[in-house]
Amino acid sequence: MLFLSDVFILAHGSNVNKDMRIDWDRVDSLIRQYLPNMTCVKFCKEYAPETIARTIGQRAKKLGITSRKYVPTEEHKQKTKEGATKKLDDKVFEYVRQFANKKSRIEIAKDLGISFHLVNRAMSDLGIVIDEEKSKEFQAEGSRGHVKKAAEAFWEKYRSNPDFAASMSAKTSANSKRLWQDELYRAKVSGGIRRTYDTTDFRERLSIIGQKRYNEDPAVRAILASDRPFKNSKLNDTVAIKLESLGLVFQREFELINYKFDFKVGNILLEVHGNYWHNLPENKKNDLAKATIINTYYPQYKLCVIWESEIKSIRCNERLVEVLGLKTIIPVEIELDKLEFIDKPSGLDKFLISFHYLGTTNRKKYQFGMLLFNNLVAVATFGQPVRPNTAVGKVLELTRLCRHPKFHNKNLLSFFLAKCVNYIKNLGVYDNLVSFADLRLHDGTIYRATNWTDMGDTAPDYNYMSADNIPMHKKTLYNRAVAADMTEGQYATVNNLHKVSIGCKRKFLLSLV
What we know:
Blueprint: H1 2-12, H2 16-19, H3 24-34, H4 40-46, H5 53-62, H6 74-85, H7 90-99, H8 105-112, H9 116-126, H10 132-141, H11 143-160, H12 162-180, H13 183-197, H14 200-216, H15 218-225, H16 234-245, E1 251-256, E2 259-265, E3 268-273, H17 281-297, E4 302-307, H18 308-311, H19 316-324, E5 340-343, H20 348-355, E6 366-372, E7 375-383, E8 395-403, H21 412-427, E9 432-438, H22 445-449, E10 453-457, E11 461-465, E12 471-472, H23 474-483, H24 488-494, E13 498-503, E14 505-511
Parallel strand pairs: 3-4, 8-9
Antiparallel strand pairs: 1-2, 2-3, 5-6, 6-7, 7-8, 9-14, 10-14, 11-12, 11-13
């Protein structure tokens, strides 16, 4: 937050408050309308004086708009030529000789009414060289110095005025949230951070800085020694949701002597290991020490580990059951007439994370659920297709369909899917529904049972896999490659990712007209 404010100061000097209030929607609209016929500099002067030409150029590039290139007029060319070939008189040489070590070149140029470049030429002709210390002094007093002074004034006001600090923090936070909505911006930021942390030198330097601060600063040691609020990781949250879905009672962050364990399920201490962090040599030693302590002094507990790659795999639920030594869940038959069909059920994302091998999805324009005594037993989501030429007319794709493993009827999902189809058909908006069955798990029996047409197999598809066996969708990799200005293959090579075939999918189509 503060870093972004600093960037604004350095980029725009003391006009930071003004620039923080730019209406970018208005500016983007003007860019589309006027910029193709003028330069960025002229656009800033006429339509957006609160911005700078470089920022407008970046916005235009993002919008796919090219500004008109600046073409100097003959008059401008002539003036430039006259300035370059202008003969310097004795008055100029004398003034430069007298003040070269007392004033900056910009000040001398203003005093004489000539260009900065002519002052340079005069100094060159006179053989005058400004020493490095004097040059730094002039820079400090010049434009760079003004920017620095403006920044210092800003930070002084920020530290001394709580209302101003709160206002600036809120504005910067709002601006950051707006930028974060842009997928390309997110890819650039996350890709840059990832590449930075992948650099061994950077991690070592960060470690040295941290150790030095800890040893030299008592305040840092006091903060680290104090009780701090616990912040859950996404991996741990995912495991917690899955444990809840299995009906297990557990405790998070269970403390035992000087160690904390991610979960305590009965007499099992479950640790969730990230592939990168827990494969570092130092952390391997710590994990081994924890295991030794438990095995030696606390035999009443059993220490189990589930890895990030296992959590992100399609076998996550099965693997969790295996790790915890649980018996397979026995499905229970239910009476279909007691089920309630609802639109936009609460807890849908949590249900998908618990029971669907792909987890939740962003493509869920329509969401449906089946309730049994106010408890979800099945969910389905529909969204816009991502594959081109999926079908003719207006098409909607079935993106997720799953049931709770505890409940099972031979025709439960077909009964549910038929209700979803009727709901969408009654909207009168769509011509066709499409779905793709993952042949690794099933062959689309549910679609045939509800009269969908089998359109055959799609072309073989692929994803990417890291050296730690963590999968990455090919679209995710493509977005990151574009953000890094690389091809898909180049990004995969640099980040040690390899293609993994996921075979074909079977396409099913249902006409609604």
